[in-house]
Amino acid sequence: MNFSLHAKMNILGQLTCSLLLLNSLGFSFFTAHTSQNGIFDIGLVSISFQYPSSLFESVDLLAKTTNIINSCNENKDFYFVELCETMPSLQAGGYFYIITLFVLELCVINSALCLWWVCLGRSSGKYEHSHALSPVIYFITLICYNLLSTTGTNAKIIKEGYGMVYCFLIEILLLILSMHYYLVLKRIFANDFLILEEPLATENIKRNFSRASGTHSRGANDTGQSEDDLGLRPMSRRKSCSSSQAVQVDEKVVCKEIIEDLSGEIEKLMSQKNRLEDSTNSLKKLMESSVPDITIYQSNIEAKSFEIKTLKDIIRNLKEKLVEKDIKIKEYERDLSVNKALVQALNTNNDLMVRNLDEKERVLESIRNSGNFKSFDDVSEKDSKRDSQYRYGRFTDSTHAGTSIAHSDRESALDKQIKDQGRSMLYPEESSGCKFQVLSEEIFCMKKPQEYEKIIKDQEELIKSLKDKKNEYKLTIKTLQKNLKDIINDRDRLADDLSSAKESLRAIEDLYIESSNKFVKNQEDWNTEKADIEYSKNILARELEALKSRLKIQEEAMNAEISEATNKIESLKDKLQYYEVEHELAHSEISRLKDLQDLLKADLLDKSSNPSEEIRLSPQKFSKLLSLTDPKYENSLKDLDKSFHSMIDEKDDLRQSCADKDNTIIELSEINQKLSEKIYELQAEPKNSEKVLDYGRSSMQSENSASSSFLSVQEMFVVESISDFDVRNNFLLDKVMRMKKEPPMIYANLWKLMEGLMEEKAKVDKLDLALKRKPRHIAEFTMDFLLSHYGLQSLANKQLKAMTMSLEELNKVNHPYGVLFCRLLGLFHPRPISLDLSVYLLAVQHLFNAIALSNKATKFANHYEILQYGGHASIVDVMELIMKVCKNNRAVGERVIFSIHKESEYKLEIALLKVCGTMAKTGKKPKHFFDLLDNNSTNSLDYHEFVDGIRYTLGIWITQEEAEAICAYIDLNSNGVITMDEWVTRVDFNMYMQKIYAKESLVTKVQVLNAFIEEFELEMIEDYNKLRQTIKIRSLDQIEFENYMRMVEPCLKDHEIIKMFEDIRSIERTKNVSPEGFCIAVLKNKLGGYGIGSFDLKDIASI
Question: Where is the EF-hand domain (predicted)?
């Protein structure tokens, strides 16, 4: 008999009884006949009756029991007077029946579920008391209800109605189902399922064989046992043992092969782990080897600075010498000017003396001719003495005065000398003229001739002395001219020396300026190279830390898998030993059964000899015995086959997991190799370090993640740096690490818990934004939510531990929804979502839940498939949602909508659904929209008119490329014009109305949220690139940092700028700040409109 069929029949009967019991709530259980010919149909909570009326023959009424009791208390109506006394007992009996009915419902459903689990093979069938409990409970309920309801002074008017008969029929059905369970299902269950638990014991076989031998000794006519019992167990095991022998031998070989394969794979994994550790050590050595190069650069800079200092000292000494030479040259020039003035004065004096001598000779000749010699000689002698003394005194005084003044004060002496020379030039003329005039008057006045001779002699002597003086003056003039020439030569020589010194000084200055420029340039290059090297070193250190963390996680996962594989191997070894023992037992049984078979064949086939008394069987009965098979051996063989297949499945799973780990290790080795090549390039060409860190998206390969496939490594570091939450300092992880190990949370419960968390956080954020308060981070809110959700702190801590373990597993397998939760909470992911973006995303998911379709599916697998991605909604509804959210920025909304289905293979169908589905939801016909798009009433649409009409006239947010693809699809003859016939032919609104909620047009919540995250990260990268292009220098000191900050945000205060500068320096560990650090600081603090993008909380708060 088939157990499954009987179980399903019993379950169907249980469910039918459950529905009938619920239906009994509306039946009338009793009928009351009063003395006023009143007939009342009494139910659980209501009473129906006919009320006599003067207008009509009778009025059918339905009233609640409580209302009738109230009317009885208020006005003792004769029509209800007999029923009023019994109403409290009726109400009490109804309440009792309703309460026990729900208990009975639970009992019936429990019995049906238990039987269903037994049918599925997931229960042992031990919980069977509910099958017998249901009819007993219902029978007691009916008896108690009848007794409670018929108690009272006027209970005699109450009689059982058809509802009570209906309930007793349900009781009979429950009794039949209970008897069916105990008499049919339990026997079949014992025969088909519980027999699998009995072992293959050799003692039972020996006992059965001895019993069979004893039976044969009694004779064929003995009726102590039936013929089926004769030797049934020993002979029926022949086929099962022979078949199990082959299966166990094959299974033993397969188990050995599995163990060998697993040990080989474990050795491969250990070798790969060692290779990864070697590569990590090599990276450390390369980082340590770059330290001597930095010390060499510093020593070279110190040597260059010392050389520049010495050059500065030499230039300063040369300048001092040049200044001294300039002073000497000025002194020489002043001496030369004084000497020139003296020479000129001497020349003028010489000319005057010559003129005076000529004048005196002329006077003497005139005197001689006149004859007055004596008086003339006396007068001339006196005059000559007086004139000579006067001239000599004037000359010596003027010479000594000019020389002393020239040595005391060069400039004043020159002016005084000119004045003195001018006077000396005038005084001799005046004096000589006066004397000669006086002399001439005296000569003409004197008439003594004896004096003329004496005067002439004196005049001759005077002339002679004057000639001597003239010669002396000439010699003096010659010496002075010679000295003047020497001075001029010295001056020219000094001028040449001065020019050569100036040229050498100018050359030294040029050399100094050139060396200073070179030094400054070298200093800037060194600072730039040093900053680049330190920045690259920091980046490599961060990458190394990330690799270490990933390697640690990978190592832990590999160790866990290795331990799990080792445990499985040990369990397989135990199973192998068990199967070997079973094989030996089966082999011994087979050999014994073969001996028995040979003995039986010998007795049956030996016709000449008489059969023994112990074994007397006909050939037909012998063949029948050979054909029989014990069901216990069949079930054991089935169990072995199932275990064998399960082992094969486990082996395939292990191979798949090992293959995945191999791929991950290969990716890590490739990243390792790229990092080592970068380090080698940095060491080989330090000046070209900026080429190593290319800030474009094509510089390095992205991570193997669904949420970061569009970002390069540099861009991912930028996105990671601008986050306002540090993953390494997450207090949730700190709280979890101190707790005991808990089993991971079931994923279905995790999804429900996280959905509730996001909904509650969205409500709190909406309230905070309305009150203009800063929202809390979701990681801080999580602990309060768990405490309010579970009520106890210890239980909340346990659930937090289980939740984090489940999220860690989901993050490892790169589950989209699990990765999103990790990024929101800042757990296990290097790029957590910032606070403002998380508030924005939670508001979007709240709006998505409003348009999401119902998650109730017929199968649990389908329900879980929807639940693990946050639910799903139609792309048309999602497009309308994004149009509402991004109403101020259409370009961003179009990119987000396209990003949701950019990986889909049916892009054209989705674009058509977005356009035609939106049109179909309005309930209008295609001709109406064609007329709206046809602006010039030509009954045709060109591509430009169609695209602009869809995007702007109808306001449907699709990209230009999607609109053009739709045009090409509708244009059947490809002439560039869409006619009404083509439009009606291609567009069927009924079909697209059905496709709106088809499976192909549904998108999940995680797709929508990841599209917003992708758009936000792309906008942050664009802002970063814009800022980076404005900075043309390699590094920023504090002054340059302040200037650039003022350009970005003029309202910043000095202490805020200094704090940001010091924070970036502490992060980068450099003297100055790199341009990358400046850009990240601007984005992180949202200065100058950067770092916000299109995701403003004011816009989402207004929706």
Answer: 921-956, 958-993
